[in-house]
Amino acid sequence: MTDDTASNAMWGGRFASGPDAIMEAINASIGFDRRLARQDIEGSRAHAQMLGAQAIVDSDDVEAIRKGLLTVLSEIEAGTFQFSAALEDIHMNVEARLKEIIGAPAGRLHTARSRNDQVATDFRLWVREQCDAAVTGLEALMRALLAQAEAGAAWVMPGFTHLQTAQPVTWGHHMMAYVEMFGRDAGRFRDARSRMNECPLGAAALAGTSFPIDRHATAIALGFDRPCANSLDAVSDRDFALEFLAAASICAMHLSRFAEELVIWSSAQFRFVVLSDRFSTGSSIMPQKKNPDAAELIRAKIGRIFGANVALMTVMKGLPLAYSKDMQEDKEQVFDAADNLMLALAAMDGMVRDMTANRPALEAAAASGFSTATDLADWLVRELNLPFREAHHVTGALVKLAEDKGCDLPDLSLADMKSGHARIDAGVFDVLGVHNSVASRTSYGGTAPDQVLAQVARWKGILR
Ligand code: ARG
Asked: Where would you tag: which of 167, 253, 421, 449 has the fewest CB atoms within 10 A of its CB?
């Protein structure tokens, strides 16, 4: 390609010399925006087609452009395309190659268009695909969680607040909590997608164009709902990318919390789950180790995804309308965040699919730590008609007694119980078992196995 031109082939008319090497280094984006090649050619094809239909460019030239663009695309896909930093970005690389292939008609493609609306269009197309990919990844993960929840709808485990034993819950209930979170994440990507689905193409540099273009036609051809209604806005905002990054950040935060639980749960101290060998690593020195590296890396990846969001917000926040070159810095942040989000989603999906819950360990843990103290207090209210505050106090004293004796609540004798309140009878022992405890939590959205299975069925319907 024409790396050796004294001044730039695209705007050489006004320039006596080419750029300094440092200028080229800071200015060129081809090192990363080559990822937009497919979208760039798609946008150019729609634009050329419209220029022909509007009789702005004659049909022979449009046909030459169409064929030439397909050749360029096949070269890029085959890996034979020579990208040139002197040509700055993907837009000029494609156009310069088109000129080499078809000659003069290539010069008509940029009629009624600017790189400003071109890049905004390409990038929207790219981010839109990533929204779809995120939803697909989330749905796969949700299906894996549903399988875990259905199998373990009745398995008991400790529920925590402050990471202190709180009340027994079911394994299925815990899995379904993440289904709710990831379901909202998918909704955020869908919302962002529908809001970004307006086409900037035809906004030209910033003011629109005097050519009789048909922006509705190009919008529809590219799968957008409609053209952006303000040309200044179309070329100068990147809120579509920011919404993607915001949705990605919240999703990554959810992934990170779950990853943190898996790290804790797979430790020798908890032993709540066994992660598969396929999603674990060993230690080079300690033969007994099986490390939850995938979970740890998912937990860490939120850093770069958050970082991308903050970086692009910072890039955008001081820019006067319309386009400024600052905005070229949008792409690497979004590419990196998207790549790592998709990887994290796939890794979490694999881990959840493969992991085995350790039922005996979950059940033993569920029964320790006075986890049914609330059930005891509720029993005192229900059966003895104590005010809840008094029941709370009586239960607290009984917990203290059990603690002093080194046993759990169900191990206290009836005489011990009566020392807490004289009217307590043997019926109290029915509510102190963890299975009875979870089975009693039948309020809508509660942890009772029936409630969990109802939510599993609801989500299966949604995901079908
Ligand atoms: N490479 C540029 C970017 O990514 C394309 C737009 C350039 N526009 C311009 N007026 N220099 O933002």
From this structure: 253
Side chain identity, residue 28 = A
Question: Is the distance from the beta carbon of residue 115 to the nearest atom of ligand 1 less than 6 Å?
Answer: yes
Contact present, 97 and 75 (Cβ < 8 Å): yes
Q: pLDDT for 29-61, tens place per residue?
A: 999 999 999 999 999 999 999 999 999 999 999
CB 380, CB 394: distance < 8 Å? yes
Query: What is the distance between the alpha carbons of residues 127 and 188, in angstroms, rounded to a whole number?
Result: 14
The pairing of strands 198-199 and 226-227 is parallel
Nearest-CA residue for atom 10 of ligand 1: 116
409: Cβ–Cβ under 8 A, 6 or more apart, which residues? Answer: 370, 372, 373, 376, 398, 399, 402, 432
Cα separation, 227 vs 82, in Å, equals: 33
For residue 162, indicate whether it is catalytic: yes
Mutation to probe ligand 1, out of 27, 328, 334 (largest number of atoms < 8 A from CB)? 328
Rounded to two decimals, what is the model's pTM? 0.93
Chunked into runs of 10 residues, the chain (464 residues) has average pLDDT values of: 55 81 93 98 98 98 98 98 96 98 98 98 98 98 98 97 94 98 98 98 98 98 98 98 98 98 96 90 79 95 96 98 97 98 98 96 93 94 96 97 94 95 94 92 96 98 95
